[in-house]
Design a protein that fits this description.
The chain contains five helices and eight strands. With 217 residues, it is α+β, with helices and mostly antiparallel strands. It folds into two domains: 20-56, no CATH class; 58-214, Protein Transport Mog1p, Chain A. An eight-stranded antiparallel sheet has the order 1-2-3-4-8-7-6-5. A hairpin with a 2-residue loop joins strand 7 and strand 8.
Length: 217
Amino acid sequence: MPIRLWVSGSGFPRRPGIKGTITGGAGVSRLVPMLALAALAGCATPEEDEAAVQRARPAVEAVLARLPAAAAGFERDAVQDVAQGDPASGKVVEYVTPRRVAVAYVFLYDLGQPRVTAAELPPEVERAVSEATALPSDRTGRQLSVAQRYTVPARGGDLSCAALEGSFGRTRVERQVCVGVADGRFLRVQVTMPSNAAPSADSRAFAAAVAGAARGS
């Protein structure tokens, strides 16, 4: 009988001012309005700065639309908000294998940051691993721990990954969690499956495929 898995998820530098002393009667009267216009042009509001960032990176929906219908044995399913009313938490796309023997989640989020870079990955990787090993208190007999860390090569940049091993009751399970960056946002790919599952799904190949697709590369 196939095992159905429960899986838990989950500004800008100030522009330099114009400095200098101008002397010379009529020249001053002509230049002052010009300087005032230049100063106004160089002072963007926080809202304008944020709008510029959003124009520089695609919308979350546009990035998720790049994800494949199927990859490495998984088929795409539903997309939903990670947390209702909290855009910073992003969105998540579920992927499943036939009969939900294995389940994968692809998260895209920014935690309220205007543009995420690779320099911000290390702490986010640790947060992702911590969340991936945490299990609800109302579900007893479940435990997961880190067994291995590695990188998964992917188009547009490697993913930082951790392999977790443990059990859900009497069932031995394994979970892979990978984190990278895609178009200025964090990309997290989490896959959970029974340890003895038939090799119909490949967690590393899946992570690499969806990362490359999300990056449009």
